[in-house]
């Protein structure tokens, strides 16, 4: 079972590690448990799921496996509940939450369904009817029937540690600058080799764009302020007036308190099409309890590129399919000894910040100009030639960009 701070959950979130493993040629043993079976390979097959409640714990404990949690003086804390074959209404009706003080007296409060991650996975919130004293220790008793797993309910300690945390945008920074090659033009084909999830390798014919535009990309990293108790915040990026043409990560981060997390990434690259001395973007943070919003802007000068990425799979071709994509392909294959790649590296200037931020208008050799509308055409998928499994198109990263994977997955924590 997984918990992600990213708001967009489901099969796409499960497939992200698998897609990267395929694109980067990792062995299938590096894939998360169950991915091989999920993608249709031979294996244990589907395991019958149990009916009833399969998980019921305070959210902080669900994430970090701690034995007690911190709450603010308003008593607000969240509870993760998972159940099979039960509607949200049935889950809420079957859920019992009782909070008592050290004398065993009940602390009156309200329980409500706060968020539905997906059918069968719900977040409930309990709030005290009266302010609580700092230093007070309470016990939350959670119970639900029918319980299909041992991780359903129990007694949990709540410690009141301070007033509620005011909404804050925290701080935004950039990490892992890369050359980004945006695909343009009509699709062409190339051969690419993959390590199959099912084992062995396969050769596929990929449909890729006929040209590339060189841009600059980085990963946006959200640093959280000090937090007391539980908060429920949602963060998204917004363009700055200085870079209104930036391509933003589509993901929003839903942060439901994890005391062990101080930084979170947005899961995909932030792309700047236009060259500049400094790059800016805004972060907007919403309190999901009150709907209030705050924002701040971050600006940074670009750093030397650590590798290459693309919105198409042309970087995964065995060789450059034409001259227009050669520069991008060679950037992604830094150790290739193809004559054209050797020539490009020999002609390249010494690496510095400005060299890491060159764009289509000043790169050598030139890449294909963009079409008038700036549209990106990354082809229409793949055709399988040899046996094995098959996945659709995915963003491509060069080997030099492997450290960026840790940044892209920053903030995702496995619950159990």
- What's the total number of strands? 19
Uncertain ranges: 1-39, 351-396, 398-416
Helix content: 10-25%
Tally of helical segments: 7
Give the N-terminus to C-terminus distance in angstroms: 6 Å
| Cα Rg | 25 Å
Main sheet, how many strands, which sense, barrel?
7 strands, mixed
- Secondary structure class reads mainly beta
Percent strand equals 35-45%
**Order of H and E elements:** HHEHEEHEEEEEEEEEEEEEEHHEEH
Quaternary organisation = single chain
Q: Look at the structure and give the mean pLDDT.
A: 77
How would you sum up the global shape? elongated
Please characterize this protein's 3D structure.
By secondary structure, the chain is mainly β. The chain is built from seven helices and 19 strands. The strands form four sheets. Strands 9, 10, 13, 14, 17, 18 and 19 form a seven-stranded mixed sheet that branches. Strands 1-3-6-5 form a four-stranded antiparallel sheet. Strand 15 and strand 16 form a beta hairpin. The protein is elongated, with a radius of gyration of 25 Å. The termini are close together. Mean pLDDT is 77; it is low at 1-39, 351-396 and 398-416.
What is this structure's SSE topology?
Blueprint: H1 11-23, H2 35-38, E1 52-58, H3 59-64, E2 68-72, E3 77-84, H4 88-94, E4 95-100, E5 109-118, E6 121-128, E7 137-144, E8 154-162, E9 171-195, E10 201-223, E11 232-239, E12 253-256, E13 263-265, E14 270-272, E15 279-287, E16 293-300, E17 308-310, H5 326-332, H6 339-347, E18 382-384, E19 396-397, H7 402-408
Parallel strand pairs: 2-8, 9-17
Antiparallel strand pairs: 1-3, 3-6, 4-7, 5-6, 7-8, 9-10, 10-13, 10-14, 10-18, 11-12, 11-15, 15-16, 17-19
């Amino acid at each position: 079972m997984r918990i992600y701070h990213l708001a967009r959950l489901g099969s796409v979130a499960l497939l992200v590690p698998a897609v990267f493993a395929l694109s980067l040629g990792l062995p299938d043993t590096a894939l998360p448990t169950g991915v091989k079976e999920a993608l249709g390979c031979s294996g244990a097959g589907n395991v019958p799921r149990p009916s009833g409640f399969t998980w019921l714990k305070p959210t902080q404990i669900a994430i970090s496996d701690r034995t007690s949690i911190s709450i603010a003086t308003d008593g607000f804390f969240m509870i993760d509940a998972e159940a099979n074959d039960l509607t949200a209404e049935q889950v809420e009706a079957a859920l019992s939450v009782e909070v008592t003080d050290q004398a065993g007296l009940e602390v009156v409060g309200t329980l409500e369904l706060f968020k539905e991650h997906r059918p069968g996975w719900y977040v409930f919130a309990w709030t005290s009817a009266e302010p609580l004293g700092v230093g007070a220790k309470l016990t939350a008793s959670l119970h639900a029937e029918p319980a299909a797993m041992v991780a359903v309910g129990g007694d949990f300690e709540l410690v009141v540690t301070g007033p509620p945390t005011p909404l804050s945008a925290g701080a935004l920074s950039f990490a892992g600058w890369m050359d980004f090659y945006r695909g343009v033009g009509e699709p062409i084909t190339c051969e690419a080799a993959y390590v199959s999830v099912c084992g062995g390798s396969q050769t596929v014919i990929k449909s890729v764009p006929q040209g590339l535009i060189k841009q600059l990309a980085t990963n946006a990293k959200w640093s959280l302020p000090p937090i007391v108790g539980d908060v429920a915040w949602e963060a998204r990026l917004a363009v700055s007036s200085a870079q209104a043409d930036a391509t933003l990560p589509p993901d929003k981060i839903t942060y439901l308190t994890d005391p062990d997390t101080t930084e979170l990434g947005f899961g995909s690259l932030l792309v700047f099409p236009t060259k500049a001395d400094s790059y800016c973007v805004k972060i907007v943070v919403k309190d999901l309890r009150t709907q209030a919003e705050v924002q701040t802007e971050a600006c940074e000068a670009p750093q030397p590129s650590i590798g290459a990425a693309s919105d198409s799979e042309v970087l995964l071709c065995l060789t450059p399919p034409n001259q227009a994509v050669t520069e991008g392909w060679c950037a992604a294959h830094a150790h290739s000894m193809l004559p054209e790649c050797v020539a490009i590296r020999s002609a390249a200037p010494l690496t510095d910040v400005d060299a890491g931020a060159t764009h289509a208008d000043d790169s050598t050799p030139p890449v294909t100009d963009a079409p008038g509308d700036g549209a990106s055409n990354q082809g229409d998928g793949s055709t399988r030639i040899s046996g094995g499994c098959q996945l659709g198109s995915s963003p491509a990263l060069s080997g030099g960009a492997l450290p960026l994977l840790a940044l892209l997955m920053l903030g995702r924590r496995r619950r159990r």
